[in-house]
Amino acid sequence: MIAGLSGDSGKTIVCLSIMHALRCKGLNVSAFKKGPDYIDSAWLGRVAGKTCRNLDTFMVDSDAVLCSFIKNAFESDITLIEGNRGVFDGKDIRGTHSSGELAKLLRSPVILVINCSKVTRTTAAVVSGCLSFDPKVNFAGVILNKVAGKRHRGIITESIEKYCKLPVLGAIPRLGDDSVIIPGRHLGLVTPREFEKAARLEDLLREIADRHLDIEGLMKIAHSAPPLGMPESGSLPHSEPKVRIGYFNDSVFTFYYPENLEALQSEGAELVAISSTEDKSLPDVDALYIGGGFPETQAECLNKNQDMLRSVRAAAEDGLPIYAECGGLIYLSGSLTFKDKKYPMAGVFPTNLIMKPKPAGHGYSTVRVDRPNPFFEVGTEIKGHEFHYSALKADKQSFESCLDVEVGVGLGEGRDGLLYRNTIACYTHIHADGVESWASNMVRNALERKMARTKTGCTCSRPTAEMGGHSRF
Predict the structure, then answer these.
(1) Are 396 and 408 in contact (CB under 8 A)?
(2) Residue 470: pLDDT band by 50, 70, 90 thresholds?
(3) Selection from 239, 132, 151, 255 nearest residue 194 by Cα
(4) For all residues of the chain together, what is the average pLDDT?
């Protein structure tokens, strides 16, 4: 595991550099990201050359997280896990769900990345504090980041090796040309699909690994990790496709946990990729899944494709089962105001949103289903996460909702889960391994839609009987 003392310590660039070097050696590398994250995972997966999996013990049971790790790492030569935030930062004072706790669950050695700006010998005191704070975490080495020069590096390295008895396995200098580093924005890094300097980034990763990291030393530590056992036999069975479920898959909407898509396939869905910007209408599908992304940064492009906006609105009106998360909620809203400009959206819900300068909701969330809907049984508790800058505009807005927010923000005033006919849109992101009924219910709704169309010989579909009479928020 590559962990840090805080966010923005340099973990992602270090991870990408290590993985690039390992792949150049011909090794089969598996990548994992601790916590609820889409963007870092996308970058890790791109450099690893295979899907990166998220490991999150809040949304998913610890045993299931361990099984997922073993299953997806088993055939690799080496695995790398990027931590999040500070190594001991968790949900509470006990550090529950922290990177350190995950490292103990996976019995993984931890390499600590430290931003060394304007500090020398004190770095050793910080490392020493980490070693004593939880002796059960196997700290195995340190990588220094943003080192000012040879003397700076020497003092810190000698201090750590003398007082902490840990090897320093790399020292990355301050990189002068910031333009070659992955740029960031309000939700973190830009996504790989939007990055235009891939070749230059690859050169940078190679340079960092070759000149500033002890790859052989890191490999030796990785091989010291104890065995975890064999994966459970078999994988998710993929039923013969019985329904077609479309999902927006383009540079705007990229936030999908791979397990969510795989769960739909295992329940009998054929996934149909759709472009929200290029395609002019929905294809022949029995349900639609709209994940998260950055509709605000490409609002103008989305707005130009009025044909698709109208197609989605008509499909929702016709009763097509639609499940949308965060960015999908924005897409289905009445309008979005971004940088003082108002963009009409699909208008499935009579909600007007505005982008705030600071996060409106950020962190783990817990919601409880309290009203009938097509996707979850009433009373179901759902653990997820949210990270959104958009929120309802101040004017009074009336709409139906089905989720009571116990922890988090959602739409505000303790509500989430916009509801209209067979459509749900929420700020809460879920992981299919933690909400096992979601995929089966999604496919069931799609199958009912398909059967209704077959019986009537037309494309219309009325809302299900249980959808009537919701209270309004």
Answers:
(1) no
(2) very low
(3) 255
(4) 91
Q: How many CB atoms sit inside 10 A of residue 255's CB?
A: 21
- pLDDT in the model for residue 461: 40
Q: Are 81 and 55 a contacting pair, CB within 8 Å?
A: yes
- Residues 116-136 have pLDDT tens digits of 999 999 999 999 999 999 999
Domain assignment present for residue 304? The answer is: yes
Q: How far is CA 268 from CA 285, 308, 321, 371, 374, in A?
A: 13, 26, 16, 27, 18
Element (H, E) at 441: helix 437-456
Helix (H) or strand (E) holding 78: strand 78-86
Q: How far apart are CA 317 and CA 301, in angstroms?
A: 24
Q: What is the reported pLDDT for 458? A: 60
Residue 263 domain flag:
yes
Q: Contact at 8 Å (CB) between 90 and 28?
A: no
Tell whether 92 is covered by a domain.
Answer: yes
C-alpha dihedral, 92 to 97 to 98 to 101, nearest 10°? 120
pLDDT at residue 34 tops 90: yes
Q: Given CA atoms 259, 264, 267, 273 in this order, what sign does their dihedral have?
A: negative
Residues 297 and 338 in one domain: yes
> How, if at all, do strands 78-86 and 168-173 pair?
unpaired
> Is 15 part of the annotated catalytic residue set?
no
Q: Is 310 found in the same domain as 217?
A: no
Q: How confident is the model at residue 454 (pLDDT cuts 50, 70, 90)?
A: confident
The active-site residue, picked from 15, 52, 116, 326, is 326
Same domain for 196 and 327?
no
Q: Are 245 and 442 in contact, with CB atoms under 8 Å apart?
A: yes
The sheet with strand 53-55 has its strands ordered as: 53-55, 29-34, 78-86, 2-4, 110-115, 139-147, 168-173
Range of the domain at 253: 243-463
The answer to whether residue 470 is domain-embedded is no
pLDDT value, residue 192:
65
DSSP one-letter string for 443-472: HHHHHHHHHHHHHHTSS--PPPGGG----B
In this prediction, residue 199 carries a pLDDT of 63
Decide: 195 and 202 in contact? Cβ < 8 Å. Answer: no
